[in-house]
Amino acid sequence: MDLILYGIVGAAAFTAWKANSLTSSGAGAALIVGTLSAAAFHWTGLLVLGAFFIPAVLLEKFLKVNDKVEEKGSKRDALQVLANGGPSGLAAMLFLLYPHPAFLGGFITGFAAAAADTWASTIGKRSKKQPKRIFTSQSAAKGISGGVTTAGHAAAFAGSGITVLAAYITHDTGLSLWLLTTFVVVGFSGQIGDAWMGDRWQSLYQCNVCCAVTEKTQHCGEKPVLIKGKTFISNDIVNLVTVFLAAVLGGIITMLFT
């Protein structure tokens, strides 16, 4: 049975690489995260991973706005894969070493938070309404990290919910329905934290040549000027921190109530 699961993981990583959804390094990282997920949680792990990964690929393929602001494109490299899936992969590895339900809770909420952020950023950018800075009424430029929309929030909740639902339908987690419902909220809160950290701390630059505002460290062949945030806090760092914190919170809640 495990060989079948590993085969599915390998086939999915290869297909995503061939479809230009992942770089070669991204496919390698996805293979590691997927193998850990399958080894630790079997079909539950694979379904939760799939509930995050498959919609993320489809959303970015068919709904992604051609955004010149973002640091990277829709083809995910190893850093992007690990920023989103690394915390859940770590939870799976820890579960293999010490099989406690808390690591299952962290695994699920990590992917729920990653899904919430992916859905919010992809669908939110297609909203016709002007985004607002998180926790304020100030307008934010479209495509800039930290801007939120009602559509983005709704998408985040849906993404988190679908990911947790994948864990529920296996009936193999041993976790109560109310606890899984809590995971949906934790996943959604990860997207809120991502927007806040992106608004407050993520690096943002302005090009010296065309004056465009961008997250890229190179623009028009030159290094742009930092106008906000910290140079070492990229979008990948923001994603990693917020997804990791959501996974930790999910693990703590599971530990307290199981």
TrEMBL record:
<feature type="transmembrane region" description="Helical">
    <location>
        <begin position="79"/>
        <end position="98"/>
    </location>
</feature>
<dbReference type="Pfam" id="PF01940">
    <property type="entry name" value="DUF92"/>
</dbReference>
<keyword id="KW-0472">Membrane</keyword>
<keyword id="KW-0812">Transmembrane</keyword>
<dbReference type="InterPro" id="IPR002794">
    <property type="entry name" value="DUF92_TMEM19"/>
</dbReference>
<feature type="transmembrane region" description="Helical">
    <location>
        <begin position="104"/>
        <end position="123"/>
    </location>
</feature>
<feature type="transmembrane region" description="Helical">
    <location>
        <begin position="144"/>
        <end position="169"/>
    </location>
</feature>
<protein>
    <submittedName>
        <fullName>TIGR00297 family protein</fullName>
    </submittedName>
</protein>
<dbReference type="GO" id="GO:0016020">
    <property type="term" value="C:membrane"/>
</dbReference>
<feature type="transmembrane region" description="Helical">
    <location>
        <begin position="237"/>
        <end position="257"/>
    </location>
</feature>
<comment type="similarity">
    <text>Belongs to the TMEM19 family.</text>
</comment>
<feature type="transmembrane region" description="Helical">
    <location>
        <begin position="31"/>
        <end position="58"/>
    </location>
</feature>
<feature type="transmembrane region" description="Helical">
    <location>
        <begin position="175"/>
        <end position="196"/>
    </location>
</feature>
<keyword id="KW-1133">Transmembrane helix</keyword>
